[in-house]
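User: tokens in, sequence out, please.
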């Protein structure tokens, strides 16, 4: 039980850090350079972790780390950019909020990791809460943006499940370092072709990228993949719903506005769904079911 709680708390570092990333990106980083932003986010983070672990891929991990880098960094960041350009943030976030179900189903398909009923209920409740929290009546639907957002969610979920499947072969720090490094390197040609010369960075942008690189990428991704190694995929996906919760709370705090009743209800549902998806709740539910079956 203590280990489960510990790894849940470690995993929560990632979505909370990603939630703060929205504000830092908006306030500190140069606009109009999303691909260079992804490069400056992923590549330095990968190199920092690589310097810390001092391990290069060996054998099959050359191609495995490349596959994970493409799915979890290069393609993901690019598709998120397309979705961000075509959709309101609320709609894109709601589509990404369905990732717990995608993670559960893909874990079942790829890793034969059958989702627990309590986790499925938690996913439905949590996703409903995220939609309630993020839904706006002014949402504009763009088919390209929806397709990009769905593809980003699906492909990154496949990457996360593969990372979980291969987690026992190397340590988390090395795997994360290789993925981010590969992802950043592969994004460089796309950034040059699409955006031309890199942006000039002022003092605020340098500090902003420092935070995004170290906290919202290196630390966050290491925590996320550690969670995938030690927790069920569905549990990790539900913890990921703390991302939009953090974004809403931080935006409210910075803007100085109070939370609406709908947002409070949505946050409450997300937290209830997250609790239902915890392995301890699943074990309690399974135990009661077993007792009931024996009694019958």
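Assistant: Sequence out:
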């Amino acid at each position: 039980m203590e280990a489960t709680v510990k790894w849940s708390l470690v995993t929560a570092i990632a979505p909370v850090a990603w939630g703060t990333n929205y504000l830092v990106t908006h306030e500190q980083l140069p606009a109009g350079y999303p691909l260079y932003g992804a490069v400056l986010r992923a590549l330095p983070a990968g190199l920092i972790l690589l310097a810390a672990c001092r391990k290069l891929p060996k054998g099959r991990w050359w191609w495995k780390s490349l596959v994970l880098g493409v799915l979890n960094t290069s393609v993901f960041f690019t598709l998120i950019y397309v979705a961000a350009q075509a959709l309101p943030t609320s709609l894109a976030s709601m589509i990404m909020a369905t990732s717990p179900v995608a993670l559960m189903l893909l874990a079942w398909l790829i890793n034969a990791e059958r989702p627990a009923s309590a986790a499925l209920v938690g996913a439905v409740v949590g996703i409903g809460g995220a939609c309630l929290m993020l839904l706006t009546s002014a949402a504009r639907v763009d088919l390209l943006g929806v397709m990009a957002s769905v593809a980003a969610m699906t492909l990154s979920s496949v990457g996360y499940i593969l990372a979980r499947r291969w987690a026992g072969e190397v340590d988390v720090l090395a795997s994360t370092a290789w993925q981010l490094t590969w992802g950043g390197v592969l994004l460089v040609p796309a950034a040059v072709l699409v955006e031309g010369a890199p942006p000039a960075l002022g003092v605020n942008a340098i500090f902003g990228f420092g935070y995004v690189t170290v906290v919202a990428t290196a630390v966050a991704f290491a925590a996320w993949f550690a969670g995938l190694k030690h927790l069920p995929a569905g549990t990790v996906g539900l913890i990921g719903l703390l991302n939009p919760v953090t974004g809403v709370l931080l935006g409210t705090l910075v803007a100085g506005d109070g939370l609406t009743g709908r947002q409070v209800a949505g946050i409450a549902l997300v937290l209830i769904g997250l609790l239902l998806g915890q392995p301890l709740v699943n074990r309690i539910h399974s135990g009661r079911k077993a007792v009931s079956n024996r009694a019958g």
